[in-house]
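Q: Entry one of two.
A:
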Amino acid sequence: MLDGVMLLWFVLAAVSLLFVAIDIRNTPESPVLKWGFVLVTAYTGVVGAFLYVLGCREPLPGLHERYVAARWRQALGSTMHCVAGDGVGILTGAVVARLLHLSGITEVILEYILGFGFGWTVFQALFMRDMAGGSYPRSLKMTFAPELLSMNYLMTGMLPTVMTLRKHVASAEDPTTPNFWFVMSMGLLVGFVVSYPINWWLVMNHLKHGMMTVRPALADAQARERVAETVMNGMAHKGPHVSQESSMSRMSMPTDSGHAPRPPVPVMALLSFLAMAAGVAIGLLT
């Protein structure tokens, strides 16, 4: 039965990945978040495709700005960005750990270092440096704490899931088998769910961005005309206010909110490490 479930999972994952990779080209989202949705769909299959359609895909031409303005979609975009980047490093660490015959805490440390390292220095700071005025050092500084919190809760959900499944799924530690990739997919999927609340908190406190809208100048002007027409038709009261500024002006680093997060970031960081430690303990004890 497990073999049948895995076969169905991978078939649906392939179809979902193909759909998202083709369809997202027409979505007015930033390039890094487009790649993020493709990667998350590769990790989580049909779930990733469902989240793309529900959270990012433009329902009608010109409505992307209003559609993604909802707080839960902003948090979804933030979580997706975290899991996409960290997942590359985590999966690389899992494969390298198998090749080096590492296990237990040693493997966890390697996956954490590679996951956080790639997610922070590349997928967050490098790809989003324009949001920090083009300064990579400033981007590194501004994205460190948000990435740390996201990564810790991602690992909190992923580690016990992977550790538990490996004890019950044959060959789940061998990267040359589909069992390995199925277990890692399940781990990243659970990690996505567990890290969603902290990303909601980060977006709410303007420490991370969520979804964005990026359009060419002409398309942006046309989109604003359509939004204005929608407002005139009496639909404005049904959703968040739509800014009449250029879509590109929405791409600014979200850390200058003018108020201190509550609880403070150091407290949230301590709680995240405690949560991750609990996840590791659960995985080792099950």
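Q: Entry two of two.
A:
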Amino acid sequence: MARKTKKKTAAKKKPALASAKSAKPARKMKVARARNAGRAAGADPKRVSAILAKLDEAYPEATCELRHENPFQLLVSTILSAQCTDVRVNQVAETLYKKYPDAKAFAYATPSELEMEIRPTGFFRNKTKSVMGASKAILERFGGEVPRTMEEMLTLPGVARKTGNVVLGTAYGITSGIVVDTHVLRLSKRLDLTRNEDPKKVEQNLMEIIPREKWIQFSHQLIWHGRRICHARKPKCVECNLEPICYSKDKTV
């Protein structure tokens, strides 16, 4: 009787092993589908190379348009630029950094006074908290220096990946990722480089198809193109050197 029981047990195990083996291809297919999620047909390597060449042709000297003299000023200006134009931030910065020259000055500022200084940039109460909080963190945890890694940048109040990428890329030349602001998000979709809506997923898609050595410049160039030519409502497609390889549904030509 004991032998029969063992045989039955063994017989039961075989289908279980078979089902486990058959499950592996299914898991691989799920992983592959997850990786391809949001990828677009326009992300073909030859087309991406053509887009990069066109951007180099149009904007060979594109750079961050936030005026700054050091990484800390760039950090503050980038925080202030949320839902605000760079032009307005630069106007505020002209007097702001004379009154608050360093992290210590911002960290121990009078909140109500700082709010009035940055009021023209909008959302001034939240931005005041972020700027003061980031300044204190830089003083207390990083010896007064803006950190040089994304992991450390993300521990600062008011800092997400976009701000981290702006500061690391522009101030330090560190390719930590690709800046995905409103312009990069819009143009990446128009150029069919991604089909995602979430900035984090868009950044992941772009990082997979754009050569790492181009990440910083690509961000600047796409932002410049979005501000000058590829506007949200009425893109100037007639003036766009990317028009021949762009098949966006909202083209104006």
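A: Comment on entry two: The radius of gyration is 25 Å. The CA atoms of residues 71 and 130 lie 16 Å apart.
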